[in-house]
Structures are given as C-alpha cells and as structure tokens.
Structure prediction request, 745 residues.
Amino acid sequence: MAGIIRTEGLRKVYAVGKERVVALNNISIEVEKGEFCCIVGQSGSGKSTLLNQLAGLEKPTRGKVIIGGHELSAMNENELARFRQAHLGFIFQSYNLLPTMTAAENVALPLMFKGVDKRTRIRRARQELKTMGLLGRAGHLPTEMSGGQQQRVGIARAFVTRPKIIFADEPTGNLDSATSKQVLHRMLTLSKEEGITFVMVTHEPSLAACADRIITILDGKVQSDVVQAEDVKQKARDALMADSKTDTPAEPVAARPAAAPA
Amino acid sequence: MKISDLAALSLRNLGRRKGRTALTVVGIVLGTCLIVVLISLGIAQNQNYDKMLSEWGDLTQIQIWGGSSYTVMMNGNVVTENQPAQLNDEGIAAICALDHVVAATPQYNPYSLNGRIYAGKGDRYETNIYNIYGLYPEAMEPMGFTLQSGEWLSDDASYGKKVIPVLVGPYAGYNFEDTRRSYDSPKRYRWQGQTDANGNELPPFVDIEKDTLTLTLQSYEDENGNVKSKSWELKVVGVMNEDTAKGWWTQSGFVMRLKDLRMLEEEYRELTGDKSEARTNYDEVYVKVDDMDNVDAVTEALNDMGFTDTYSISDQREQMQAQVARNQMMLGGIAAISLLVAALNIANTMTMAIYERTREIGIMKVLGCELGTIRGQFLFESGTLGFLGGVIGCTIGLGISALLNHLTDILMWVQQTFGQNIDLYAILGDSAYYMGEDNILSVVPWWLLALALAFATVIGLVFGVIPANRAVKISALEAIRHD
Prediction:
C-alpha cells in the first residue's frame, strides 16, 4: 500500500548570494496513513525545509511530493490553498495566532476560509477549545494567554477542520519541558482518536521517542527512517503520560461559563 | 470564504488603526467635498442663466424666417434664390410631424390689408389693423399662451355669419382713438396708466369685451374716387394674458384664426381687383419643442428639411453653458487633483498596512486562505476608505451648499446679533443685489452626490489594486519563518 505522503527524489537548492546551498538532496520517504511521524535532526539539517516541502509551502527544485494521490508540486498557488483548506492542518513553533482575534475566532479561522457560517464555526471552535481544556479562554486574545495555552489554541485550530494530515514545525520549541509533554500528549491522543496522520519536526529525542516513525535528516539526506517497535514507543508514551499527569494544570479554572451548545 | 466574513474582517482591520484610517479618510473627504461644492456652483450658474434667458423669451421655442424667394448679389450678378423649403401650410404640417415638436404656427401679420376697426356710437372710435395676427387656434395653448378670461378660438366652432372670433390682449382697448378730436389733441389718445387731474386712472375709450367691434376693409380710391368696402363683426371670445416673451402683441393685439385672416385677404383681393397670385408662404413660423434639451435636435431636423433660417434662445444658452463648462472644468480639475493626492494617500496607507500584516497574511495563506480572498480583503479596505470619505465629503458638501445659499441671511443675522457693520456688497459682490431665496449660489442635484460618491469609491478601489496585488504575492513561508 502506497503511503498517504510520498516523496520521490526530492531536491531543494537555495541560492544564498552567489553560492548554491543544497538543503535537501534526493529524499524519498513514505508516511503511512494514521502514522505519527517525527522528523528529527540537528539545526540546519534540512528538517524544516522537508516539512515545508511536504506541506506544499515551497516548490521543490526537483522531485515530487504526492499526498493522497495528488501531486503538490504540480499545483498552482490557488489550488494549493484549496488543498490545504480541505486536507491539511498546521501547528507552528511560534503559535502564529492572529493577534486581533480571540482564541475562539482563531480556531474558527480555517472554517471561515471554508465558508462555514459564523454560528456553526464558533460553536465548533468552542468544542475544540473544550477538548483542549481552554473553553474558559475562548474570548481571550493571544496576548492574554501563556505560551502553552496559545499553543493549545494553535492545536485546536489545526484539528477543527478534521484534516487528513497535520504538519507541526517544532510545536514545543518555545515551551518548557513540562508544558511540552502536555502539548505532545494532546497531539498524540487527538491524532490517534481521529485517525489523523501527524508529521512533526522536533529536535527533542524524548518527544520523538513516542512516534510511530522517526525520520532522521542529516545534511539534507535521510540518515535513518525507523518504524519503532510497538513496545519501545509504548514505553515512551507511558512515560510521557505519567509526566503530563503529575504536572499541575498550566491554566486557572475556567473563568467563563461554558455557553457552547452541544 | 463568505463575502460577509471578508467585509467584517476588512472593517475590523481598518478599526485597528483608527488614527491612520481617519487621516486617510479626511483626504478623501476634502476632495469629494471640493468636487461637490465646486460643481454645484456651476450648476447653479447654469440654472440662473436659464432663468434669465427664460425672461428674455421662450427657451423651447424655435423661430423660422423666410419662405419667399429672395435676391442676392453673387460675383456681381443678381441671383434669385429660392429657399430650400416652402414655409407654407404643408411645410408647417411637416414640421409638426417631427419628433419632439409640440406645435407650430405662423404669427401672420396681414400688412398688405387696408382697413380699420371701429367701435362706439357712430363708429366714433377707431384703430388700424396692424395689430392683427393670424395663428392656428389649436396651437396656441401648447405654445404656452394663456387666457385671462373667456375661451380659446376653435377652427370647428361656428360663430355666426359675417362674425369673426378674436382673442385680444388685456390692453387692446387702448388702441382706439377718438376720431372727433384732432390728431394734434392729446385727448384723441388714451394710454395705459394715464390718469386724470385727480390721479384717477382713465379707462380706454372702448370696453373691448362689451362694445361691438366692426372690422372694415376698404380699397384705396380708384380714378373715379370710389372706395369699395366690406365689414365684419369682431367677436371677442377671450382675453389673453400678457406675455411679452412670446410676443409683444399679447399686450394689446388681436388674434384671429389663420383661416379667417386668409379669408379677409381673399376678400380684400376681390375688393381691389388684385389678380396676382396669392401669397401662401409665411414670414415667420414659431415651433414649440417639448424640452429644452431637444431644441438643438429639432433645429437640426428643420435645417435638414430646408428651413435654414432659424433662431432659438438656446443658441445663446449654449454659449453661456460653454462658458460655465470651462469654469467648471477648471474648478473640477482642482478638486480632482486634491482627490488624486488623497488617493495616493490611500495607496500609502494600504502599503503600510500590508507591511504590518505580512505575517498575518502568511498565516492566513498557510491555513488555506485563497488568493482572491486576500486581494478582496485589501480592495474592500481601500474601497471602504474611499466610500467613507465620499459619504462624509458629500454630507459636508451639502452643508456648505446650504450655507452658501443662505449667506446673505447669515451675514445679516451676524450683523443684527453682534451689531457689527458688515459690507454685504463687498463680500458678495453682485449677488448681494438678489436677496433672500432667489440668491441660489449652489445647487446639488442627487446625481452629483451619486457621482462624487462613486468616484471616491472607485478611486479607493483603483489605488488599492497595487497594494492588494503586493499582498497576494507575499510568500507564506517567508512571512511565517521569522519570529
């Protein structure tokens, strides 16, 4: 069975001044449907570039990216936008919430692009925030929330459209380790519950250890592509779960009554 | 994405930078306001000209001359040329059939007739008949003539044998002279406004509506000293209102049905034994057009028919309007420049907004926002700036217009309230002579508001295009990469 994400001889070359920097060189990988996949590597290894290629944010210099049978590299920008709207979700390292919108409005944003009417999308956004334990923050602006809370809003925004694939670029990079574990736990649980394929870039080995598949990038090449054994990843996940449970909640108790209709 | 969401998002973005939005709008307000006020001045001037012209004569009337052959000198030779078209009954019927022509009639004056109108006991009072005019009776009302009393003449009605129905001007009675007085005596004449020693107004000799009037045609003496004559009774069926713009004869003239006048001419030819061919052409024909704006078209149609010798006040109106249009062009140009500056301001504001929101645009793109939505959002913002400025500008323009139209009142109020002596004439110039409501300096028709509003909005949109395209070209990745 062909994977939901597939690359064929992917190559990306940047021109830095007069020099040409090869960021990705002949990458051919495959991610199965429903897999939780981590891309790891040192700074400058090309792991973020790979993620951007997989998500269709950048055109490859050579090679193909195929998602669910659609070749991203052959699409124009509007087709890509519609494809992202329909099938992809994103979580960013720096959260990237729109500063003028409340948490609920931020979560509802992808639904707005899809043309969902305001009542429905705000209701669904509040449900998503509830899952994230953030219903009390629905009416807050990003500046009124902690980093961990903002990132959970970001996660809710990625999950609200129930995409086929979610891409996350170092989602825990700006968070302390306890919050990181909580956030990863949420992402892992949700994607398993919803059967969503999850591709995450990270440089923290303890987080990567929980993944189904670990792809290691070094100097723009695939150094290793490992599908972890069931017992190994289960051990790492149990440890993660235990850690995130002992942590105190990073947010106060909901300040607002839950108004969202079920 | 829904249009309503796009609009809401754009408005929210404008609201984020209230100060900058307000400043940008102020520029447009200024430009729109200038356009409305400056153009309204020209419109008012045109209206005042029209009012003035309509006092000179009927604006929707065309006068046609000629119809008979005339002689010109050409290269030393005498050439007799015929008018291209004949100004006779058939010609007038053809004119009446033209589009936009309401009515047409000659105002025919029988200067070849010799005769008198008598009234009073023993025909004591008499007048000449140079004041008689023949018109198509059915054309009079459409031409804009009005009656003070009585009724219109009718070609179909019968008034009795040897009776000719006439309409008279309100002062027709003053035509009559007392034949018992000598020509040198002032008592032979009466005129309008004449008073006796006690200051009482003197009535004319003849009460034109009550006294019996007799029209007598007479031939000149033949070699035997004989004079042939024939008489008709004139029956006054109505009194016209005086309207010198339509013809001075509405003051004190006599109007007959054209066919009666023709009959009189025929009778006179018999009396005098004139065997020459009867004249069928008219010297002057008046054509009434349904609307001022169609006068030119009808004039052109008349020229095409061969009636080349025409005149209408609209000829003068055109010159005046051309002058106003020149002024308006200049003033409008100034206003347009200020609006252009404001538009550059919009472009600048939008470019700034895009720099500020680069990251947001990137995020939106990554989250699946289509390019059209991004472009639409920025165009909506710039269009809103223009529209908002347009609305406020139009409102202020209306206010200034009202202020201008009541300038005399306001200045007089200031004078009375504060006891200041203001030289109205120094401030207002000639217009101070027309006080009160007649002093209309500025007219703002609804189309001017609509046009100014549309112009401001379109300018906003047009000058938002380049910034909007710039926003569309922002690379999503570049925008979100740097923290």
In short: DSSP finds eight helices and eleven strands in chain A. Chain A touches chain B at residues 52, 55, 57-58, 77-78, 81-82, 84-86, 88, 90, 92-94, 96, 98-100, 109-110, 112-115, 117-118, 157 (CB under 8 Å). The helical segments of chain A are 47-54, 77-87, 103-114, 118-131, 147-159, 177-194, 205-208, 230-246.
